[in-house]
Design goal:
Elements: H1 26-57, H2 66-92, H3 95-98, E1 109-113, H4 122-131, E2 138-142, H5 146-152, E3 159-163, H6 166-176, E4 178-181, E5 184-187, H7 191-198, H8 206-214, H9 220-225, E6 230-231, H10 238-242, E7 255-258, H11 261-268
Parallel strand pairs: 3-7
Antiparallel strand pairs: 1-2, 1-3, 2-6, 4-5
Helix pairs in contact: 6-8
């Protein structure tokens, strides 16, 4: 019998377009996808195996020998005893005997923490943090009258302090000053922040703030409240320490430096 249905096959000619990317076979795409998934699984399992081996070998467990505990205890007790002895010496002497009259000035001073105090007593660390000197090379402006020097005298092994010039005060504020704005620490780089906080006290710009701090004006405490402790740099960098075997001899320069504080600040500013 004759078939009444006729099938018409049309072939579409595909033209080559050089601008189009080449077609990739579906089998190759599936293979790539499976290899990527396998690489992710292997990376996770390798990481788990590494962590497991570290736990088995005990790399995360830090063991201390009894000699190390004894050494740290002696360092803590020694630093605490040294501070107590200095406190007793300060109490025995009058405030006029602590600092000669010729050394006293009516300008501001700076206190810089020069010792990390890794194994020091918790009492000493708490006193340093109370001053705002939490880390090594932290610095604060300080009113260096006889009462202020008597407070710092017991911490001579950890703090260097002395009077600085008006130029040094300005450089500290311009290069290292930070303030808290809505709970965030931000650099004090414009006069708008100063005017918003201290505008009612006639302190409108950075030069007014520098003058108020240097001369210890009537708004000295309010001016210090907007400033965070200064984070200064180490005089010897990591490259010099590790490669050149150079070390900073700052820890032996504690105590009252009088007018030598400017030269000391230039090394760590």
């Amino acid at each position: 019998p004759k078939n009444n249905f006729s099938v018409q096959i049309t072939t579409k000619r595909i033209m080559f377009d050089p601008s189009m990317p080449p077609l990739i076979p579906e089998t190759l795409l599936k293979k790539r996808r499976s290899l990527e998934e396998l690489a992710i699984v292997r990376a996770e399992t390798v990481g788990q195996q590494k962590n497991k081996k570290r736990v088995i070998r005990g790399e995360d467990i830090k063991l201390k020998r009894p000699e190390q505990f004894l050494m740290e205890y002696r360092i803590r007790q020694g630093s605490l005893n040294k501070m107590n002895r200095r406190k007793a010496q300060v109490e025995k002497k009058t405030k006029s005997d602590l600092v000669p009259k010729l050394s006293m000035k009516k300008t501001v001073g700076v206190a810089v923490r020069i010792h990390g105090g890794r194994h020091s007593s918790k009492i000493i660390k708490a006193q340093l943090e109370k001053l705002g000197l939490k880390n090594k090379y932290d610095a604060i402006f300080f009113k260096l009258d006889r009462d202020g020097i008597a407070r710092l005298k017991a911490l001579d092994a950890y703090v260097a302090y002395g009077f600085i010039s008006n130029k040094a005060v300005t450089e500290l504020l311009q290069r290292r000053a930070y303030t808290l704005v809505e709970g965030e620490k931000k650099p004090l780089s414009d006069n708008v922040t100063i005017e918003n906080v201290l505008g009612d006290k006639n302190i409108l710009c950075l030069s007014d703030l520098s003058h108020e701090i240097f001369t210890i004006g009537s708004n000295f405490d309010a001016a210090l409240q907007i400033l965070c402790p200064f984070n200064l740099s180490a005089p010897v960098g990591n490259f010099e320490k590790t490669i050149l075997q150079a070390h900073d001899k700052v820890e032996g320069k504690g105590g009252f430096l009088e007018d030598g504080m400017d030269a000391f600040l230039q090394k760590i500013l």
